[in-house]
Design brief:
This protein has 630 residues and is mostly beta strands. Strands 3-4-5-8-7-6 form a 6-stranded antiparallel barrel. It has a 6-stranded mixed beta sheet with strand order 2-11-10-14-15-9, with no helix packed on it. The protein has a 4-stranded antiparallel beta sheet with strand order 17-18-19-20, with no helix packed on it. Helix 2 crosses helix 4.
């Protein structure tokens, strides 16, 4: 009965306790200057008892410190988080101070979408941080679902400094103690050590972080505000609503803004981009929603402001881009590995998931790779990591198992040296037979076409299915490339370049035949000069693209190839340039991000490289086989 009365009785007045704690802070300066980021008690998991009196008191002390430190004046004076160390301004302003910038949200006429002020969402707010430069800074952040009810999501470059505190649905002009949903000090950060603030390198793909906040008055953050769900970035091209809080130097109204806009891809990176005027510095860390419930203020998050240069360009002289172009890293394996760590209060994934390929296995020398005649990619080991099949000049056929980081771990012989495979004319990977693994389709010089379903390192090439007999019309096929051209969502389509320049798309290719044929180009002289053809999802919108290296070295990409046509053409390399030496190429998902956008190229001298995350421009180049010594 006594326990029942205790549970039913009201808690002691928290405001009185906070007042006493503030007095303690004033009387005991040594206590007041203690770091607010010291490890607090772990957040209670869902369904567990409320915090103990000792842990609740410790959390209330942290809240009292935050309320004492973050006065309304301190909040108003906070500047966007610096992304290059003390003395550096936010990359999104291209080095200019807030006083140099227009004091309107969207100055003058702007093309395209514009950010609009709105009342805000209860699950999105401002993250206030005292940085390493001892100055007060700000970013945006959002509440995300977790068993402990205490996680926020922001940008990696925002997860630094001391006295970090989150204010959901921030109210302009109110002190921390008078914010409608309270102030929530951050007790611990979860971020990748490999990420460097303000970077423009590959590590900018890791510009996300989670913070675990303490309780406030015995309450958990998620119990007060609710929480957003997290979902994988399904496509580089989708409609999102970006929410954040621009700094007062750019937005004197000091209110939340939102912009609903279509995304695209930032070429060469695992990042999305949007063009929306008014997304000034301060929105860093803000969520990108795929959908929002306006009544509850909750939604599904597929991105966050951040990435290259901290989330925006800084090209000198590109004034129209100020506050317009905004980036977000995609939320895929690396993001969700960190999310699991944060939910479980562990730090097991703080190494770089995009670290260079393993050096414990070597592909060999350029002298050897000069004889690599054909390449095909697919998941031939069943581990979700892209692999490559190589057909050599002497007929030997090998499988290189990928490490998911753009490198390889082992070589497996599928066929020893033989004369039969010297007659393989063109090959491609795909999922034509509908099994659990990737298949290999081979067009032979005599016109026979063979399909090897579910190739694995253990069973080898396995059984052979004849799709076309010898001396068939397929002897006139010069190149084939498997892809997914908007029909089934699987790699069951086949692009074919014929000897007379005709280009066809065969949809629904399977173990019983070539499906339905669609003519994309009638016979013509131009396409007779298409020396190399491969396909992949380079533009990230789930519709595969075609990449061509022409005989004069020009490289072009045809976006969103489909039965209706090759798609819009984009030049990637000019004529008579270094790409005249590209001899063999294939595209696949070799870096573990889930997108078939990595271009593997064998050059004339045997040098072999990977262009990781290729978009409408070539991605970051990694040398897998060094060029021969001069």
């Amino acid at each position: 009965m006594h326990g029942h009365e205790h549970r039913g009785s009201p808690p002691p007045p928290r405001q009185v306790l906070r007042t006493l704690l503030v007095l303690i802070l004033v009387l005991l300066p040594s206590v007041a200057t203690a770091s607010a980021t010291a490890d607090p008690p772990a957040a209670a998991p869902a369904g567990s008892p409320p915090p103990t009196p000792a842990s609740a008191a410790a959390d209330d002390l942290a809240v009292a410190r935050a309320e004492a430190f973050w006065t309304s004046e301190a909040m108003a004076a906070a500047t966007p988080m610096a992304r290059g160390g003390p003395g550096r301004t936010d990359g999104r302003t291209d080095g200019r101070t807030p006083e140099d910038l227009p004091r309107t949200l969207v100055p003058g006429p702007q093309p395209g979408p514009r950010a609009r002020h709105f009342g805000g969402l209860v699950t999105v707010g401002i993250l206030f941080v005292q940085g390493g430069d001892l100055r007060r800074h700000m970013c945006s952040a959002s509440v995300v679902d977790s068993p402990g009810g205490s996680l926020i999501l922001t940008a990696g470059h925002c997860a630094t400094g001391r006295r970090a505190a989150f204010v959901p649905k921030y109210r302009t002009g109110a002190s921390a103690g008078r914010q409608p949903y309270g102030i929530w000090p951050v007790g611990e950060w979860f971020a990748y050590d490999a990420y460097t603030p303000n970077t423009k390198e590959a590590a900018s793909d890791l510009d996300f972080a989670f913070g675990r906040v303490v309780t406030n008055g015995g309450r958990r953050l998620q119990d007060v505000t609710g929480a957003n769900a997290l979902a994988r970035t399904g496509s580089f091209a989708q409609t999102v609503t970006v929410v954040g809080y621009p700094a007062t130097g750019n937005d004197p109204e000091d209110r939340a803004v939102r912009c609903t806009v279509r995304t695209g891809r930032l070429p060469g990176y695992q990042q999305m981009r949007v063009d929306c005027a008014g997304m000034w510095a301060g929105v860093s860390g803000g969520p990108w929603f795929s959908r929002i419930d306006e009544k509850t203020g909750r939604g599904v998050i597929v991105g966050n402001v951040g990435g290259y240069n901290g989330g925006g360009p800084d090209t000198p002289g590109s004034k129209p881009l100020y506050g317009r172009i905004t980036y977000s890293p995609v939320h895929q394996d690396a993001f969700f590995a960190l999310y699991q760590d944060a939910k479980n209060n562990r730090h097991g994934h703080r190494a770089d998931p995009y670290r260079p390929p393993s050096r414990s296995f070597s592909l060999g020398s350029a002298r050897t790779w000069r004889h690599a005649r054909l390449l095909a990619s697919g998941d031939y080991t069943g581990d979700g990591k892209g692999d490559v099949i190589t057909v050599w000049g002497d007929g030997e056929t090998t499988l290189y198992s990928g490490d998911g980081r753009g490198g390889f771990t082992a070589e497996h012989r599928l066929r020893p040296r033989n004369t039969t495979w010297t007659h393989a004319k063109t090959v491609t990977g795909g999922d034509f037979a509908g099994g659990d693994g990737s298949d290999l389709l081979v067009v032979w010089g005599d016109g026979e076409v063979s399909l090897y379903p579910d190739v694995t390192r253990r069973t080898g090439l396995g059984r052979e299915i004849t799709l076309a007999p010898r001396h068939s019309v397929w002897r006139k096929a010069e190149q084939v490339a498997g892809g997914s051209f908007g029909t089934t969502g699987h790699v069951t389509d086949l692009l074919v370049r014929w000897h007379d320049g005709e280009v066809t798309d065969h949809t629904g290719v399977g173990a019983t035949g070539f499906g339905t044929e669609h003519r994309l180009r009638a016979p013509n002289a131009l396409w007779k000069n298409a020396s190399l053809v491969t396909t992949g999802d380079f533009t990230g919108d789930d519709a595969w693209d075609t990449l061509v290296r022409w005989s004069d070295g020009e490289v072009t990409q045809y976006r969103d190839t489909s039965p209706a046509g090759l798609g819009r053409e984009t030049r990637m390399a000019p004529r008579h340039g270094p790409w005249t030496a590209a001899t063999v190429m294939t595209a696949g998902s070799l870096d573990g991000n889930g997108y078939p956008d990595d271009l593997l190229v064998r050059w004339r001298d045997g040098e072999t490289g990977l262009y990781q995350a290729t978009g409408t421009r070539f991605g970051r180049e990694r040398t897998l086989v060094a060029p021969p010594a001069p």
